[in-house]
TrEMBL record:
GO molecular function list: hydrolase activity; isomerase activity
Lineage: Bacteria, Pseudomonadati, Pseudomonadota, Alphaproteobacteria, Geminicoccales
Keyword set includes RNA-binding: no
Superkingdom in the source lineage: Bacteria
Domain Xylose isomerase-like TIM barrel, first and last residues per copy: 106-292
Species name: Benzoatithermus flavus
Keywords: Hydrolase, Isomerase, Manganese, Metal-binding
Short name of one Pfam family: AP_endonuc_2
Name of the protein in its database record: L-rhamnose catabolism isomerase
Amino acid sequence: MTGYRIDDGLVAEHNAVLEAELAADYEHLGAKLARSGRDIEAITAEVQRFKVAVPTWGVGTGGTRFGRFPGPGEPRNVFEKLEDCATIQQLVRCAPTVSPHFPWDRVEDVTELKERAQALGLGFDAVNSNTFQDQRGQKLSYKFGSLTHTDPAVRAQAVQHNIECIEIGRKLGSKALTVWIADGANFPGQQHLTKAFERYLDSMRQIYAALPEDWSVFLEHKLYEPAFYTTVIADWGSSYLAATALGPKALCLVDLGHHAPNVNIEQIVARLIQFEKLAGFHFNDSKYGDDDLDSGSIDPFRLFLVFHELVNAVVEQRPGFAPAYMMDQSHNVTDPIESLMSSAIALQRAYAKALLVDRDALSAYQESNDAIMALETLKRAFETDVGPILATARMRAGGAIDPLAVYRTSGYRARKDAERPQTPNLGGGIV
């Protein structure tokens, strides 16, 4: 295998400079937490167990329908994407799996893809199908829909693509298929709303029937875009109805940017957990819509509240709770590797803070209707600086105390720019 990799010696060199200061900060935080009955070692061990998948498309520069500005050293194929994903894992040590997207990541030899990933220390999470774009050589167009198209031949083509994705995923060692469709309408009257949903269910039943026994299918909803009047699977209610109709292998995936503005996402998460239909997450952040910004960059408190519900589910031993975690972001103005590392750490941070919530006290305040003290209990955990826990967890796992500093010192991006000559591509479109 060729290509520049960051030397572990550089990581160790950087860690050696910071380790004493980190140890002092960790000891100080441990003493503070101990006063409230929290064991810092137990929290750190839990943080080390947290894992999130990196999307293969996320390591490339994103864009909008207005434009895309490619960055230096972008991966040109899935094998180079794996190199970048492995670099993220090397430094943050909480992203050991990748989530591929087909046909973007199609290869002739799936076994070779799996072996290359294994050589880099990576595994495969959920596979993603794509019926929201037309591909070169595709017989029928998805311009007016895919799984819900009025033409049964188009629906059959879309169903077959999803079944092919399952077969590829099976060879890679994946256990889930994520299905997001752009199907919908831009004008009133364009689409029969009920018949479109019926066609979706009919198509999904065929895909569901092709799932291996130990697989799941994740149904992803999105309020709007590219359809701006109605989207067939627009919200968690539609997703839940479809998943319930399909069966126990069908679950509801929550993308944090796919909701109406100001929707209470943590409540949606709680409902899906309660009824054993939470598939997991596509983590990102947003200000206005499906912005696909870095996780925790806009509303870290909301992210904390989502993780609070997730920790509640573990503490309460909710049945069927085994969510899949993946980042799904579009990096338009940042180095994608830097953004994904920052986001992975933000997710760990939200998780660590959720672990610090005094749930016994919170429950007592809830039962006594003490709104202020209930809020203060959450804020006390949220406002705790858990940085020393996160850095210690990374260091103990062989990662970097300061991943961004190591990455920039290494010159990785410049080295990849030399290795990966680019073909100019200034068009629009989100990666």
